[in-house]
Structure formats: C-alpha cells, structure tokens
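ok so for the tutorial part 2 we go from a plain amino acid sequence to predicted structure tokens. step 1 is just haveing the sequence, like this:
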Amino acid sequence: MLWRVRRLWFRRRVFVRPTARGWQAIFFAVLSLTVALLIGTTQIYQLAYALIGLLLASFALGLFLSRGMRYERRVIEGERLVAGRPTQVELVVSNVARTRSPGAEVVDLLPKECRFLVTPVGRMEKRRIQQPMLFSKRGRHELGPAEIQTADPFGLLRFVHRFDERTEVMVYPEVFELASFPLPGSSREMGVRGSFAGQGDEFSGLREYRRGDDRRHINWKSVARTGQLVVREFAQEAPRRHAVVLDLYRSETSSPEAEIEDAVSAAASVLSHFVREGLPARLLCSDKAHGATAFGTDESYYWRAMDLLAVARADGDARPGDFLNEKLGEKHEDLGDGVVLISRSLDESLARSVERLRAAGLPVVVVALAAHTYRSGGAAGGGAGGASSGREAAFSRDVSVLEFAGADVRIVRRPGGLAAFAGGQRPANARGNRGVA
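step 2 — the prediction. this is what the tokens look like for a chain of 437 residues:
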C-alpha cells in the first residue's frame, strides 16, 4: 500500500506541565523552604533543596530524552475521501535522537480527538499507527493539530510536544450506481451505453468501442495495430451532451441536512453515471456562487465537478424553474442536448420551464426529492395523519403536472433516500473514492 506524506517533520513547540505527583513535590518543596526560612533548621533546608533538585533533574531528563521525537501524518496515495465511508490514516512517531525515547501518548484530531499509546521508541526508529478515519459530512476538513505527551523518568513533569500544522483534506459526497437511470433523449434501451442523435454516413473519426455499438463499424485495421476495439464514428453519431442542474435554492424555512446531502449526492451519482457511459456532461449549480463546469467526459472533468459538489451550499436566490429559464434565455448551448434536474421543490414555474425546454427540443429528466418526507422524518404514511396525507397528495399532483409537461420524473424519498433510490449500489470501481478509471 502506497502512502504519501502530507506534512513531513511537523514543527513542534514544547510545553511543560506538572503531574499530580509533580504538584505534590512542588508543594512540599515550597513548604519545606518556607519552614526552613522561619525556623532555620539545616535538615529542612536540605529537604527543600533535594526536592527542588529533583524537579530540575526531572526537567532536564524529560527534555533530553524526548528531544528527538517527531510526528508525521500520512494518507493513502490517491485516496478520495467520501462522507460516510471509512478510510485510513497512518500516524508515524519517530525518534531522531541517539537515545531511547520514553513511552508517549499521541493526541490528534482526525477529525475527532483520538488518543494512542506509543511504547518507547529506540534511537533512529519509528512507530507506525494505522487509524481508521470517518467523516460524517462532505466539505473541506482539517486534520490536527497534534500532541505527543511524554513524562520524565520520575513521573513529576509532563512534556507536551505540540505540532500545530494542519492537513486540509477534501471530503466528497457519496456516490451510488444508477444502473437503470434514463438517458435524456436516448432512443436506445434504458441503461445501454451511449445516446445518439441518429445514424449518418459522413465519417468523422475513430473512437473506442462501447457496449451497444454496431459491430459492422469496428475498424479491424486499428484493432490489429493497437489490440483495442475501436469503431468508426459518423457525424451524426456524436453522443448527446447533458446538463446536470442541481437545485440549491435557499428556502424560507430551514431545509433538513439530509435533504441537501441527498440532492448533492444525486448530482454526483448522475455525473458518475454519464462519465461511466462515456457521455459528455456538465454540472450547473444554482447556489450563490453559480458553480459550473464545462462539458467533459474524462476523469479531470469529473473531479472538477466533485470539487464543486463537495463544498456546495443551499444558499441560492433562484428557484429551479427561474434558474432553468435564465440558462435557456442566456445561451441555449449551456444546457446541451438534454437536462437532468435534481430538484428539492416542485411548483408551477418549474412545470412551465420544462415546457419551454421541451419546446426547444431538450428532453428533461427530473430527480425530485419528496421534501415533505424529509421534514416529517419518514414516509408519507407516517407522522400527523391527515396533514401528511395532504402533503403527499400535493406532491403527487406536482409530479403529475411535471410529467404532463413532458418530464421524466424519478422520486427520492425518506426513509432510505438516495441509497434506496439506487438500490444501495455503489460503483464497482469505487468512483468517488479513488477515481473514475
């Protein structure tokens, strides 16, 4: 397993604190010295000096024996941290001195406080600790600061070696495999790789073979030369481009965290689906920053989109319908040849936007989060009886209106959320954890 050092030889600061036994020694040293000054007895002076000398010896020995201690924090090379999935970090305590270090306790924030006991480290040796790490939320997180705590041989003083350097990591949203997700505008069977505008006769180039391609278009000369299946691509065979639009409208009432996280995870899963199918796609967010990517199909494009999703917040000012109208009015090409909208709210303006998109020739798939199930804490049948049934009926009417406007609607509900929507399937190649390829 390959490990990469994020910080090498963290700079340290040393703090000294008395232990419980040390406080007792300090108390009796001060008491003895005070009594000796009042009475003038030589033996009491000697006791006070002995205790003070012991404390000084503890200080010198403690610093000397722990002077070579160093600390490193390492993560797996190429690791992509995903919210809700455990990963590992390697903690390395080193001793660069030529004397044996004392036993130590390591305290690090990973991201919660973790404590480890380390046996004495020999000269020029290392102790490695494998520690599982779990982030419950996506976003930017910091690991650290860390401390190594040692004590002198007499147990009077504690030496705290503080390493203030922090390691910043990006935690991505969880991705699920949407095996049967519809491709907007596809004329082929659902789930079959590729979506094409038609079959033409004008040759435009070669590309790798995809499941569902006509075997008559395989270029056998290239296969013999490279050993890889490639097919001839025609001008009208170019795969459709898809815009994945994420609704991050800031509603008047506070949105449950699970609702926002499922919406972000849905956008990441749809993008992963398109990349896996080899279809150009882009991400458009309706947050305050209007985060967006260009159309792409490769790994670098995918991770640019994931970087945006990792820090996305529901702070936008535009409702999903207004956002789509704005994009359709600005530049038709921004939405490509099909739209997938992850929506947290359904209303009449969204249905009108779908009608405009359909009139412009753009197929639309809406992944609708049933917001009322997130707020009631369960399925539509639970909660406050009639009120819950009323919200479910209103949601069903909104879905019917969207379908009548021409959208293909897929619904995400609680409990279960996106995991239930995807059947709990994560990509077999762990995309979102290590990479696309």
